[in-house]
Amino acid sequence: MKPLILHGHHTGPNPYKVNLVLEYLKLPYDYKLWVLGDGPKGVKSAEFLKINENGRVPALEDPNTGVVSWESQAVINYLLRVYDKSHTLSPGPDASEQDRVDYDKWTAFLTTTFGPMMGQRNWYINFNATDNPDAKKRYEEQCLRCFDVLEGQLAKSDGKSVLPGGFSAVDCHFWPWLRQFDYAQLDVSMYTFFQKWFKGIGERPEVKKIDELVAKEKEKQGIKSM
Length: 226
Fold this sequence. Notes:
Layout: E1 4-8, H1 13-24, E2 29-33, H2 46-49, E3 59-62, E4 67-70, H3 72-83, H4 97-126, H5 133-154, H6 169-178, H7 192-202, H8 205-221
Parallel strand pairs: 1-2
Antiparallel strand pairs: 1-3, 3-4
């Protein structure tokens, strides 16, 4: 089997989701880091736009099938359809319709609500050119509302996984975004089930391997941290 090619960015949470799925499915892959902008190695460069017309990461090239995918949810769905034949990370053939709906709705909650709220909070805390207290307050409130929702769900598994049935691709979607709570200056100390989940996922060898891989690729490609 030829290695797949994952295109990412050293700080972006969305490529990290795909890293996790690739690691858990034990698929061989090469990891190529890009930087922001339209310069060399930039996601807006002509070279990268040939891979993803939207100029965003992640993007995935699969030389075994000729398929190119982008947008993290589409990439992960592709990997699960093609390579997760034993349903390691996805609902199996015996799953109930409620199980399938739960998988879809919690994934959608992250990709359409929780993730974007965290992204906006990160922007106004760390990057916006002028201080905007109203925006900071709004996105703090929205992020914490999402943490409230997630805490109730995590209680069903005693903080082991987002879905009560065990670790799945849903956890892969959530982990890279929620690990940024310090960066977003959010106090999440009151969420006991989240803290248990966060600690458990962070101790998994796949997570540590990805952190080491990203650091190695940054050094190899001469990419400086933001």
